[in-house]
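Re: the request from the purification team.
They wanted to know what the chain is likely to look like in 3D before they choose a buffer screen. I agreed to run a prediction and write the result into the notebook, where they can find it.
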Amino acid sequence: MREPVRVRPRTFAIVAMGCKVSQYEAQAIGGFLADHLRLQPVDDPLRADVVLVQTCTVTHQSDREARKLVRRVKRHNTACAVIVTGCYAERAPEELRAAGADLVLGHRTPHRLWKIRTFLTGDTQSTPDVPDWMDAFGPPRISGRRTRVYLKIHDGCDVFCTFCIIPHVRGPGRSLPPEIVLQRVYTLIDRGVREIILTGVNLSSYGRDLGMAHGLYELCTRLDRIEAPVQFRLSSLGAYDLDERLFELVCHSPRFAPHFHLPLQSGSDRVLRDMRRPYSLHDFDRIIRYIADQGSHICIGTDIIVGFPTETEDDFRATFRYIQDRPFAYVHVFPFSPRPGTPAARAWRPLDPRVIHERSARLRALSHQKREHFYRQQIGRPLRALTLHRMRDGRLRAITGNYIEFELPDAAGRWSENQWIEVCFSGYTHGRWHIATIRTLETTHVATTVG
């Protein structure tokens, strides 16, 4: 760690890379800088006194981008203090220091917020007595006029898939206690938030470390009883360790968005075994079929890793056919990237990059077709939606419970931001939605899908 900054900083900028959990963590640290150190946020890292870089280390490319950013900031803003946190900071702190970072704090660094405070202010007062979960979850933060907010409730992972570095850099699974989750939920509701997205590194295993047999389901049943104009959305869920009652609750409760993101990674059981995924295709398919039977309004998304070292052309075709034949609304396609320190990087030779590129392109084209099909199924169906923010031309951005983002023409200012509405689409052409009817929803309990 370099010498503390001698001139008291006044401004800070955040650059957050990676997943939604990483984005949340960056905002939490930003909240500490603003609320406790009284720094003012600015958008341009080249004009800030302090630059916080929240890193990802899922791929070589994300590592390179982080180093490049640190070097660029230090080159153009020599007086600033660059603080680097996140997964790459945990995995290879020396690489980031070599790039010019002034302070590097990995996930397992204790009392990170207070180390930042000491570094920036030179104040060496003793570290406060804080709960064990504070470093992992930090304070919740709302930036600007956000109407949708992520709430991190789980960190770490105990699965150890052969391709994944995350358990090594984030450590074992840890859950935010349910009572703290509820306190934060009520705080967000009081601040006007209308959608809270529960997120975590391995959300499916929420509560296991706290001795809860069905932790995520138990938490969601408590959230379902909240009387407020708020909707909860679950972020990515592993297809394991899940109580089937959770799917029934989310599919039928007006308190939850009808949207599931369930990473599959491969449609080949052999590749799933090589990946050391804790489920079979049969297990995954049982969940997908159950959700699909609850109605075509439910949005189902998935992740696929293309080009895993043991993936043959037949394996890829099996994955392609499976996605083609199931009611997915979209697919996030990830070309395989070996991570040093993982079994997949040691045990097998990588595939030809041209093969990975070609397969990825085919699957992305299929994902586009699946999304178009899902959109067509929603035409004529009344859906609950939340207005987000008004653009310069007067239009409002909005999002439905089943994850359709659209623009609402409103030059007359009839609708307000952060408002629940019911919308019915008459068509979808050239990437734009056409709206048939809109009405305001006033009650706290309204069906996510009407009719």
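For the purification team: Confidence is low (pLDDT under 50) at residues 444-451.
Please add any questions underneath this entry.
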